[in-house]
Amino acid sequence: MKYHLLFTGLGAGNIGDEAMLEGFLSHFPLSPGSTIEVFDQGFSIVATFPKEYKYIDWKDREACRISALTSDCIILLGGTPIAESHGLDWPMRFHSAEIEYLVRNKKDVQAVGIGVDRLETEEGIDLFRRWHPNLESWTVRSKRCQEALLVLGIQDEKIHIAADLAWLFSPKDEAGQWAESFWRKLGLDFSRPLLGVNVVNEKWTGPTQVKSAIAWALDQIIHETGVQVAFLCNETRPGDYFDAAAVVEICGMMSKESIVVPNYYFTPSQMVALLSFCDITLSQRYHFTIFSIIARAASFSFARAQKMGTLLEELEEEAVGTMETCDAALLKKRLFFGLSNGGEIKNRQQKAAEGLRLRALENFKFLENNPV
Fold this sequence. Notes:
By secondary structure, this protein is of the alpha/beta class. Helices cover 43% and strands 13% of the residues.
């Protein structure tokens, strides 16, 4: 069988996208020659992907559609393709047009391991109901995603609850030695604890209350405990919208020095290896939280967007804040507790993660039963 994967962001610079692909392929390898849409087939990121597949630039819609029409199975894989928090042009309007084209050409599409936000605008709901109900099946990463689909009119028998595909990702062992050397070059003192931090800009650019709270809490905890703080980017694209710009803004508010990890695109194995040296992490990104737990660091997260709120519920963790508000004193207290009681937190998070890994295997329910 030849498979075709529609574009959901792979190769643009978000490390979580590759982790989902790796998790998927580790349990459902595609036949050689299958085609995968990527942000830019010429990017060095794509050179790290499996060599047995053909990668097509998502902007070349003619080539993508030809590959899709000559495939036996078309998959909408991972990410949160049902969402309107960043506008409707991407991802919903783009996918709606592709689903329309494929359905008119009598091709089936299956959604695998995706996130579904609760749509709140009439325009978003109308856009979804135009073509998305034509998908053959949906495996989703949470019960809340299932509920959102049911509200939109998708039949229950077409939906199956799984978990994020990144939970199936297994880091490569050899990355550990590389990470130790990388940290050493950045001046890390291996005798002192390390706090890894990921921050996000997106629509929250500039000097926000949350950034001030983070900067103050980090300054205080560095002063009181001697912990080292390292900032890492999980979305590596340049520009004010992405992580590196948020790092610059928060570091500019801090009085204490911290380590700023260069804004390189790391493979998921490299990112997990880097985080394995952290005692605790502070996260504003969904997959940075997952990477932290895979790396066995105690993770503290903000409730950014619906998906982060759901993830925290499943991990049985309380958010340290939202993207609009954060109690600086409480954040400091939570991080201090994490440094002092990391083992307790890690054990709780590892137990929850094991359940999510088992649930993630449910992503293949409809693919395995596909008669094509």
